[in-house]
Specification:
With 98 residues, this protein is α+β, with helices and mostly antiparallel strands. It is built from 2 helices and 7 strands, in the order ββββαββαβ. It is globular, with a radius of gyration of 13 Å.
Length: 98
């Protein structure tokens, strides 16, 4: 869930992800104007829900090499629907400190 950069309201969003060994998640937008990604650029605090688990997270922009690795992994995981990825920003969602 992100916070709308214009409305300020919480906005639920479903995105594909890759789980990393450190517990973070990698996500990538297929469009530079994707609202959820633009929201994270303005307000990196978000919340993540996977199955029955939810936690607060912080979105960190990925460097180009790491973003390319994330996009490749997402395409391999989700198949051709993910082929448009890479044109928009990519992030690492880390659990927020409590």
């Amino acid at each position: 869930m992100t916070r709308g950069r214009v409305s300020g309201r919480e906005v639920p969003v479903a995105v594909g992800y890759l789980e990393e060994p450190d517990g973070s998640l990698l996500v990538a937008a297929g469009d530079p104007e994707a609202d959820w990604a633009r929201n994270l650029e303005v307000e990196p605090r978000c919340s993540v829900t996977l199955g029955e688990r939810s936690w607060p997270a912080i979105a960190e922009p990925l460097e180009p090499a790491e973003a390319a690795r994330a996009v490749t992994g997402l395409i391999l995981k989700y198949g051709t629907p993910s082929e448009g990825l890479g044109r928009g920003p990519a992030f690492r969602l880390r659990p927020a400190p409590t």
